[in-house]
Design a protein that fits this description.
The structure is a homodimer. Chain A is of the alpha+beta class. Chain A has three helices and seven strands, in the order αββββαββαβ. Chain A is 17% helix and 46% strand.
């Protein structure tokens, strides 16, 4: 059963912010990276490149957590613990939609548009603080 | 063998900032929370309360990652993947030192000073970006 993001903190998920995505490596150590993200209905999506360790971690262990700090108050936070699913983005259209969402031009954006996949995070548990 | 924090990003570990500590729950899902932290030599320490899930996660699975975003540039980040060890802080003196480090008065600080432990993160792998 999916958890929902409370209205009190939905602004953090809707913002074009920098979140912290944590996955678990094969050695059991969490890996955390800064990511862009898009709230779509009740799930969070983002674009991953298949060369990245977080992609390999998610294929092996499809559980991840997105943590968002309010940039104006780091004690106001939103933690989204989630089941992770991965889908193809062969034409990079989803990648381009994320780049657009963040106000950038995909044509000039300095990240590879090949070998892209769509990560969907379906919340299992949501913890809002502050 | 411990990893070291590069001098280029040591300021982030030395700052009195808010980091993101990720542990792994018994269900395999990462848990992330906002934490204070102190760089002491080549390890990171913080104070935990034993009632918290992150404490229980660390007892069961002593691996954790601290992720620090530069508050002035969220694309400048420091990821510290670490072995976690826990020690007693029966008199709460370590807890008080962290509160002092963050410019607060332990006598009036609104967090319980009983049931405190000291978490030491010994870096295994450090990733600096930006």
């Amino acid at each position: 059963m999916a958890a929902t993001i409370p209205s009190s903190h939905r602004d953090l998920a809707e913002a074009t912010g920098v979140g912290v995505l944590s996955t678990v490596g094969t050695d059991g150590v969490p890996q955390s990276t800064a990511v862009w993200y898009k709230l779509e209905g009740d799930v969070i999506r983002t674009s991953l490149h298949t060369s990245r360790q977080k992609y390999r971690n998610l294929v092996a262990h499809p559980l991840a957590t997105l943590f968002i700090l309010d940039p104006t108050n780091p004690y106001r936070t939103l933690e989204i613990r989630a089941d992770a699913t991965i889908a193809d983005d062969a034409d990079a259209s989803y990648f381009e939609s994320v780049v657009h969402h963040y106000g950038q031009d995909p044509a000039t954006f300095p990240a590879p548009s090949d070998n892209r996949v769509i990560l969907t995070l379906t919340p299992r548990r949501v913890v809002a603080n502050g």
